[in-house]
Amino acid sequence: MQHEPSRFLLREGRPAVTPGAGSRPHNFVETLPTEMSVRIFSELDAESLCSASRTCRLWHHIIEQSEQLWRRQCLLVRAVCWREVDGDRRDGLSWKVTLVRNYSRSCLKSDWLRGRFSRLRSADELSGRTMTPLDAETWGEILQAELDR
Question: F-box domain: from which residue to which, for each copy (predicted)?
Answer without folding.
Answer: 26-73
